[in-house]
Write a sequence for this structure.
């Protein structure tokens, strides 16, 4: 069998500088209600007996028929439950998703089963019903059945719908209209409209899962299901309902659960999150859905003590209690609440926990507080964090604004917007009004965020105004915190690890930026969190990418320069480890996005000189990216840095030289061999001229040039240069020096490339033994030599020994570097070659197919390593 040379030819260790050397969807029907009222209904409608046979997974399963399946949109679950209770009380059997479909149920399977089992389907018509994907699917299926079985589908209108909303096929059907009437009239219309014989309920009719009429299912508690079509006697001034409200069902369920039990004190729920997360809109939606449960609902602007007092005074007027000035009437309102029950207050946009504490209602009622400050827990509130949309919620809202928007495009827009609800709403409204394509919007968002997200919505002042107002207040009241936020806004919109300046013998946290002394740092973090301009996690801070963009775009040129200078100094404080050490890679990974962000801003600034410590961090970050196999990123970061440093300091400067070595290695690993050779030759010439032939940095440059010559197939020239370098290194540093072993490793590889396999095996075996003794079995250098020895053993035809070494090396590299690191992929290829040499072609092929797919994904189809893998696979 003819195989190309096994991979591993570039596993030699690159050399840089001395400093861088290694030191019941199971058929359940509505409880005991199933079957009640059936005999008369069956007789009048010709329905099959109580049990009907249906096919399920090849076996006949007996399913019980149910009188009604209630199809509804998620926001209309209150109406659905009221209709269900009304029908149960009248003697009908009912299937309702929120009662009968348990967590984990397949929605599609449950819907299909319910539609086939129901004698009739009630479609609760509302604007949301016709806008939802799943309700549309239920309706389509019911319409098909309606054509075959007249009377199967019954539209029940619960809220006004725009003309043309109803599908044309529903126009001929008589609909039951419940919107705009009181509860007795609604009950009468519903039962009369269904017009079928029924038995009146005799005694308490079991509610599904609980055994009590009008009570929620088992596991839930609270008031009986009330009629959703009424408002309480005391009501106001609640904002208008947002007809574009989307998703948030889990958060609404949390509010329902929290406010359902009995309590001797006021139950307080604090909806907390950054500006634009939709806290107020969540509260509005809850109030409108739950208004019927309360005897009184009152909405108050709580941003200041003055506005909160005024809102309570207005409540006192509505309850006809109190007199005198505003504070007196506010106190009277709180006192009256202590004599009443069943009320709900909303303190919207509360800015100060102390103010909320001062005006905390005294009695068993319900209070929702929307706020940015997580300190509201101090008033005894249950914090409900309101964060970003899920991507599905983002796509749904965007397509409600622009129905023609492709799902893939909406997904891309959601990623750019960071799924921030207000920004999603603003973007959808802008696209609908302007006719701009989503692709064009995405292209312009970075440079024109203030413009594109500046317009107010029907329910909000807009994200730009929200961020600007919060920042201005922060800068006015806490300038030191604002200054820190300005620095962080120059970094990437990723978590930033912060730490206090070390005192005494305190050791800095690896990778953390030394921002200030402990008191100043924690004070600044607390204040920034209070204004919700960033999220805190311990001492890490994360700014949402759109807030990040807004903070940067609002600055003047002078402010931008000052913030960037401070950010450079802040980044330069990071404590980092060795780029070659996989144990230190998590620290570099956390810092890399911020280094890249600041470096890109530096590239656009002609007259700003970064601190020496930052240059060192940038240089070592580039080397880390190369060592970690991220060579595209290493090249993109190193190339402009090299150009900049050569312009500032000259090509002979040490930093210019070390960043050149990194760029050379990255280019070589990307298959750009000739460009890499040109850079390597220039580096060697400069170092010999400046430092002499025997200096460690000169020897390292010679070793790197030999690698580049070998990449281009000039193995003889590479061998001559490597043997000279090895001889000098042994003489100057000794046989066990780390650099000597680097070069010995490479000489062994050159010998193998020239066909001197026996000599190569002996040298590589000696080098491997020394490295195992000095560095351990798992060091990257040890594994590199093991890989090179492995390729030599394969070339000698000793496939059994090669297989054992290949399996051990691959296991270690997978554990240390991960499945997709170039070194791991090289070892996987070598194991496949060894398996094929032993005749185990099937396993060799499986390994090679996986290896090729990974290389195509990470390197592209035209990379030399990818082509080698494809060639070997084609043979097997």
């Amino acid at each position: 069998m003819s195989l190309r040379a096994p991979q591993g030819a570039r596993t030699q260790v690159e050399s840089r500088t001395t400093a861088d050397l290694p030191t019941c969807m199971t058929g359940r029907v509505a409880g005991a209600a199933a079957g009640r009222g059936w005999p008369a209904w069956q007789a009048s409608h010709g329905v099959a007996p109580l049990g009907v046979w249906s096919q399920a997974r090849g076996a006949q399963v007996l399913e019980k028929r149910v009188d009604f399946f209630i199809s509804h949109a998620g926001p209309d679950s209150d109406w659905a439950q009221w209709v269900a209770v009304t029908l149960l009380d009248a003697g009908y059997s009912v299937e309702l998703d929120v009662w009968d479909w348990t967590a984990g149920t397949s929605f599609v399977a449950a819907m299909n089963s319910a539609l086939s089992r129901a004698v009739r389907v009630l479609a609760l018509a509302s604007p949301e019903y016709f806008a939802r994907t799943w309700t549309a699917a239920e309706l389509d299926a019911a319409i098909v059945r309606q054509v075959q079985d007249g009377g199967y589908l019954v539209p029940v209108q619960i809220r006004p719908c725009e003309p043309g909303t109803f599908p044309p096929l529903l126009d001929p059907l008589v609909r039951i209209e419940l919107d705009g009437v009181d509860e007795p009239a609604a009950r009468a219309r519903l039962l009369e409209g269904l017009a079928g014989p029924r038995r009146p309920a005799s005694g308490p009719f079991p509610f599904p899962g609980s055994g009590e009429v009008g009570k929620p299912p088992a596991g839930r508690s609270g008031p009986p299901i009330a009629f959703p079509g009424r408002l309480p006697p005391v009501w106001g001034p609640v904002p208008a309902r947002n007809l574009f409200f989307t998703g948030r069902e889990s958060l609404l369920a949390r509010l329902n659960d929290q406010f359902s039990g009995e309590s001797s004190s006021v139950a307080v729920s604090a909806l907390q999150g950054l500006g634009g997360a939709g806290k107020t809109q969540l509260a509005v939606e809850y109030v409108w859905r739950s208004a019927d449960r309360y005897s009184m609902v009152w909405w108050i602007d709580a941003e200041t003590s003055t506005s909160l007092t005024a809102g309570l005074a207005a409540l006192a007027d509505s309850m006809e209690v109190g007199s005198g000035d505003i504070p007196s009437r506010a106190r009277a309102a709180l006192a009256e609440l202590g004599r009443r029950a069943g009320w709900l207050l909303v303190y919207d946009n509360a800015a100060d926990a102390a103010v909320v504490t001062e005006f905390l209602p005294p009695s068993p009622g319900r209070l929702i507080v929307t706020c940015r400050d997580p300190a509201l827990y101090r008033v005894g509130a249950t914090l409900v964090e309101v964060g970003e949309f899920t991507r599905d919620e983002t796509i749904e809202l965007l397509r409600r604004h622009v129905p023609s928007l492709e799902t893939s495009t909406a997904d891309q827009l959601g990623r750019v917007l960071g799924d921030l609800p207000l920004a999603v709403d603003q973007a959808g409204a802008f696209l609908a009004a302007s006719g701009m394509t989503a692709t064009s919007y995405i292209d312009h968002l970075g440079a024109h965020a203030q413009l594109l997200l500046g317009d107010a919505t029907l329910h909000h002042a807009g994200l730009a105004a929200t961020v600007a107002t919060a920042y201005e207040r922060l800068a006015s009241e806490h300038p030191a915190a604002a200054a820190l936020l300005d620095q962080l806004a120059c970094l990437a919109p990723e978590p930033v690890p912060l730490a206090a300046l070390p005192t005494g013998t305190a050791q800095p946290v690896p990778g953390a930026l030394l921002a200030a002394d402990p008191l100043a740092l924690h004070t600044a973090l607390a204040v920034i969190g209070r204004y919700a301009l960033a999220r805190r996690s311990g001492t890490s801070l994360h700014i949402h990418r759109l807030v990040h963009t807004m903070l940067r775009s609002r600055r003047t040129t002078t402010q931008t320069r000052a913030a960037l200078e401070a950010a450079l100094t802040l980044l330069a404080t990071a404590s980092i480890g060795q780029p070659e050490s996989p144990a230190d890679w998590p620290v570099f990974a956390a810092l890399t996005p911020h280094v890249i962000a600041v470096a890109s801003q530096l590239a656009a600034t002609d007259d700003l000189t970064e601190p020496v410590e930052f240059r060192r961090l940038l240089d070592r970050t580039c080397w880390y990216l190369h060592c970690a196999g991220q060579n595209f990123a290493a090249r993109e970061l190193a190339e402009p840095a090299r150009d900049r440093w050569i312009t500032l300091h000259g090509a002979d400067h040490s930093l210019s030289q070390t960043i050149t070595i990194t760029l050379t290695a990255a280019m070589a690993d990307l298959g750009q061999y000739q460009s890499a050779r040109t850079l390597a030759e220039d580096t060697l010439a400069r170092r010999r001229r400046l430092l002499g032939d025997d200096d460690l940095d000169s020897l390292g440059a010679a070793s790197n040039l030999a690698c580049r010559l070998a990449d281009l197939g000039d193995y003889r020239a590479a061998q001559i240069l490597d043997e000279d370098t090895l001889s000098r290194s042994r003489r100057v540093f000794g046989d066990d020096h780390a650099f000597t072993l680097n070069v010995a490793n490479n000489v062994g590889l050159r010998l193998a490339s020239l066909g001197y396999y026996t000599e190569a095996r002996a040298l590589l075996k000696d080098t491997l033994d020394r490295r195992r003794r000095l560095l351990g079995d798992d060091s990257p250098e040890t594994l590199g030599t093991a890989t090179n020895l492995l390729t030599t053993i394969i070339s000698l035809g000793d496939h059994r020994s090669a297989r054992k070494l290949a399996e051990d090396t691959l296991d270690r590299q997978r554990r240390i570097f991960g499945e997709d690191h170039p070194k791991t992929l090289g070892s996987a290829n070598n194991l496949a070659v060894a398996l094929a040499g032993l005749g185990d072609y099937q396993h060799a092929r499986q390994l090679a197919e996986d290896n090729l797919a990974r290389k195509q994904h990470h390197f592209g189809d035209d990379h030399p390593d990818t082509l080698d893998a494809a060639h070997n696979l084609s043979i097997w």
